[in-house]
């Protein structure tokens, strides 16, 4: 540890602390250390804190409403709704960590090692579970539409076990973060929360990054691309108009996920290649990558509050379910509810139409 501290303290703490704060950033040690002059951050720490708090509040409100609407519709809840309920839980738990990271952005890590482990675990588990749940939805739709298989798509108790399995897998994939993260003092004034594995920290953090990218993005993405390509082909070939309209919410959710997280993962992949010396690293490229990581990570964080907005604008039955909840609590009149009632021939699923 002393050798590590000598490397760290050999540069200005203020110069690289902001970049190091990125939870996937690498420690400036060994061959990864480059004494480059860093450019100013794209956003000031105050602006980042404001973004974190805004996303936290929007996610807290939106995902709580989604959970209330789905849970209040016991009779009409579909298999897809069970997936979307778990997705809302994942987004909500992820967002609950944002105030902690906002404080960390301003003051460094002031919460100690146990809280460092817990908050980091929550963050990782809910990222993994989010994309794995989307992959599960894609497989469910593939079986239901392409193969007309109803065993898994119609029995809700089975999908509950599938969701439980996804949470368990997400927890297992996140365990290295929980085990190796700690509050590490850089000097008397700055402490950070990150994985520390002794003299092999740099090597093992690269290994963990590969695991993160393969299981947390690439494999689920390939599953979604395979399933939805065949699902779309079947829908268009059979001219299943109602089914096609019903899939709009699901496609929108997947598209927004990709728009939010694909840029970050692509930049992270380039950064990984550079740190493995597969791409030549220069100070200019390092600054460009660091700025890109900062911007794209914020875009990824923003994703946790966007799904409820998709449901509100595209999901007709979600709007109807929300109005019923509001009417049941006396917040809107029954006359207003009747004027906005969805026709009875529409599907019964809370969010995802008749899927």
UniProtKB/TrEMBL annotation:
<keyword id="KW-0325">Glycoprotein</keyword>
<protein>
    <recommendedName>
        <fullName>C-X-C chemokine receptor type 1</fullName>
    </recommendedName>
</protein>
<keyword id="KW-1133">Transmembrane helix</keyword>
<dbReference type="InterPro" id="IPR050119">
    <property type="entry name" value="CCR1-9-like"/>
</dbReference>
<comment type="subunit">
    <text>Interacts with IL8. Interacts with GNAI2.</text>
</comment>
<comment type="similarity">
    <text>Belongs to the G-protein coupled receptor 1 family.</text>
</comment>
<feature type="domain" description="G-protein coupled receptors family 1 profile">
    <location>
        <begin position="62"/>
        <end position="311"/>
    </location>
</feature>
<keyword id="KW-1015">Disulfide bond</keyword>
<keyword id="KW-0675">Receptor</keyword>
<dbReference type="GO" id="GO:0019957">
    <property type="term" value="F:C-C chemokine binding"/>
</dbReference>
<dbReference type="GO" id="GO:0030593">
    <property type="term" value="P:neutrophil chemotaxis"/>
</dbReference>
<keyword id="KW-0812">Transmembrane</keyword>
<keyword id="KW-0297">G-protein coupled receptor</keyword>
<dbReference type="GO" id="GO:0016494">
    <property type="term" value="F:C-X-C chemokine receptor activity"/>
</dbReference>
<dbReference type="InterPro" id="IPR000174">
    <property type="entry name" value="Chemokine_CXCR_1/2"/>
</dbReference>
<feature type="transmembrane region" description="Helical">
    <location>
        <begin position="206"/>
        <end position="228"/>
    </location>
</feature>
<keyword id="KW-0472">Membrane</keyword>
<dbReference type="GO" id="GO:0009897">
    <property type="term" value="C:external side of plasma membrane"/>
</dbReference>
<dbReference type="InterPro" id="IPR017452">
    <property type="entry name" value="GPCR_Rhodpsn_7TM"/>
</dbReference>
<dbReference type="InterPro" id="IPR000276">
    <property type="entry name" value="GPCR_Rhodpsn"/>
</dbReference>
<dbReference type="GO" id="GO:0006955">
    <property type="term" value="P:immune response"/>
</dbReference>
<dbReference type="GO" id="GO:0016493">
    <property type="term" value="F:C-C chemokine receptor activity"/>
</dbReference>
<keyword id="KW-0807">Transducer</keyword>
<comment type="function">
    <text>Receptor to interleukin-8, which is a powerful neutrophils chemotactic factor. Binding of IL-8 to the receptor causes activation of neutrophils. This response is mediated via a G-protein that activates a phosphatidylinositol-calcium second messenger system.</text>
</comment>
<feature type="transmembrane region" description="Helical">
    <location>
        <begin position="158"/>
        <end position="179"/>
    </location>
</feature>
<dbReference type="Pfam" id="PF00001">
    <property type="entry name" value="7tm_1"/>
</dbReference>
<keyword id="KW-0145">Chemotaxis</keyword>
<dbReference type="GO" id="GO:0019722">
    <property type="term" value="P:calcium-mediated signaling"/>
</dbReference>
<feature type="transmembrane region" description="Helical">
    <location>
        <begin position="249"/>
        <end position="270"/>
    </location>
</feature>
<feature type="transmembrane region" description="Helical">
    <location>
        <begin position="49"/>
        <end position="71"/>
    </location>
</feature>
<feature type="transmembrane region" description="Helical">
    <location>
        <begin position="83"/>
        <end position="102"/>
    </location>
</feature>
<keyword id="KW-1003">Cell membrane</keyword>
<dbReference type="GO" id="GO:0007204">
    <property type="term" value="P:positive regulation of cytosolic calcium ion concentration"/>
</dbReference>
